[in-house]
């Protein structure tokens, strides 16, 4: 069995629980006090709009600065997450399930007295899984958007912990580990820079806040997405220059596709008169963007994201399939999700969507698919 499983004790679980709650609490306090732009989200069916404080990038930089100072003055030991991975993993699961139940009862308690009561075990399970409320908030902080912060910053902390564990064990960082750290750090920086676009994603707009999103944020993303780091701790050999260059090109192209396409769509939604690639944005029927990446492929953002996942996983080598479980799963998931998205778009736009498909002929791979 893995060492982090056999070393799990009640003491390590309690210690990890305190660290986890302290980390989430710190991020919540920072979300309250760090200034940021106020922006309204999409209108809900009842006409209401959630007001978001977009201070995630400042919070991310604050945590990076605090971590650097903590290491510099020997207050923080960033090998802690690796050494206490089992306790943190169990604590995160306990937190996710407890938080799910609290959200369920809290949401039910706010229902109008004359609201219809839907009973039965099946309905209870559905409400726990999908959630009761669309936009639960505490002290004006939207909990769905907030949960991305401990999720992705927590992922960053775990990733950095693998680097410190390699230094502690071997005295230096290998090039595979350095590429992994650089690629992921740039990905996280860009996410928080683009936080203004995240409030228009499907999860924020349409999904209620239940176990599905809670467990995904607090357990799946930090603990599953960081798996390659475990395999890079003991990968001490350096990569040849051609492999470094190849991985860097793969990541850069993927990054440009992923963020470029999302940014273009966001720009058009907020300013239909914007320019894309030096030309006025063009859209079919004023609805379906056909400029930039969206005139080449219908889901190139998925392609770009997948390329990034492979770029920071390939440094692990091919000794085990486990580090590749996430990109392999996404290789199956993204095409299916793209197909499902297109079915919804066809129902929504009808002949206009068919015209768009004739214009942007390819789904995810230009000239192939």
Question: Helix/strand/pairing class, anyone?
Answer: mainly alpha
Gap from first CA to last CA? 42 Å
Taking pLDDT < 50 over at least 5 consecutive residues as the criterion, the unreliable ranges are: none
**What is the tally of helical segments?**
16
Radius of gyration: 22 Å
Relative helix content: 55-70%
Order of helices and strands: HHEEHHHHEEHHHHHHHEEEEHHH
Whole-number average pLDDT? 90
Roughly what fraction of the amino acids lie in strands? 5-15%
Overall geometry comes to globular
Give the tally of β-strands: 8
- Largest sheet at a glance? 2 strands, antiparallel
What do you see in this structure?
By secondary structure, the protein is mostly helical. The chain is built from 16 helices and eight strands. It has helices at 3-6, 10-33, 56-72, 80-83, 85-109, 121-130, 143-170, 175-193, 195-198, 202-206, 211-224, 227-233, 241-270, 300-313, 325-349, 351-359; strands at 37-40, 51-54, 137-138, 141-142, 275-276, 279-280, 283-284, 288-289. The strands form four sheets. The protein has a two-stranded antiparallel sheet. A hairpin with a 3-residue loop joins strand 7 and strand 8. Helix 7 runs parallel beside helix 12 and helix 15 (325-349) packs across helix 16. The longest helix is centred in the C-terminal third of the chain and has 30 residues, at 241-270. The protein starts with a helix and ends in a 10-residue tail after the last helix. 31% of the residues are buried. The model has no long low-confidence stretch (mean pLDDT 90).
């Amino acid at each position: 069995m893995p060492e982090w499983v056999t070393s799990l004790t009640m003491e390590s679980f309690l210690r990890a629980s305190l660290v986890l709650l302290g980390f989430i609490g710190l991020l919540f306090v920072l979300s309250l006090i760090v200034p940021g732009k106020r922006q309204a989200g999409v209108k809900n069916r009842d006409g209401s709009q959630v007001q978001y404080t977009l201070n995630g990038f400042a919070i991310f930089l604050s945590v990076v600065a605090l971590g650097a100072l903590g290491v510099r003055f020997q207050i923080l030991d960033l090998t802690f997450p690796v050494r206490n991975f089992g306790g943190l993993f169990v604590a995160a699961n306990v937190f996710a399930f407890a938080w799910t139940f609290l959200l369920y009862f809290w949401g039910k308690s706010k229902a109008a007295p004359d609201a219809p009561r839907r009973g039965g075990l099946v309905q209870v399970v559905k409400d726990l899984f999908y959630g009761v409320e669309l936009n639960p908030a505490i002290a004006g902080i939207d909990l769905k958007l907030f949960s991305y912060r401990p999720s992705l910053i927590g992922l960053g902390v775990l990733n950095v912990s693998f680097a410190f564990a390699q230094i502690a064990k071997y005295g230096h960082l290998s090039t595979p580990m350095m590429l992994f750290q650089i690629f992921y750090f740039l990905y996280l920086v860009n996410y928080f820079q683009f936080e203004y676009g995240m409030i228009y994603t499907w999860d924020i707009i349409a999904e209620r806040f239940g176990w599905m999103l809670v467990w995904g944020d607090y357990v799946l993303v930090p603990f599953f997405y960081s798996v390659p780091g475990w395999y890079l701790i003991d990968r001490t050999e350096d990569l040849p220059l051609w492999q470094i260059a190849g991985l860097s090109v793969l990541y850069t192209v993927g990054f440009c596709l992923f963020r470029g396409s999302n940014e273009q769509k966001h720009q058009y939604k907020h300013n239909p008169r914007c320019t894309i690639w030096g030309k006025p944005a063009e859209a079919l029927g004023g609805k379906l963007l056909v400029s930039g990446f969206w005139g080449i492929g219908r889901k190139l953002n998925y392609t770009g994201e997948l390329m990034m996942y492979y770029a920071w996983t390939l440094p692990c080598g091919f000794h085990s399939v486990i580090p590749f479980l996430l990109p392999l799963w996404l290789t199956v998931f993204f095409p299916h999700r793209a197909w499902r998205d297109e079915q919804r778009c066809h129902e929504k736009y009808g002949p206009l969507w068919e015209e768009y498909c004739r214009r942007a002929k390819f789904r995810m791979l230009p000239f192939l698919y």
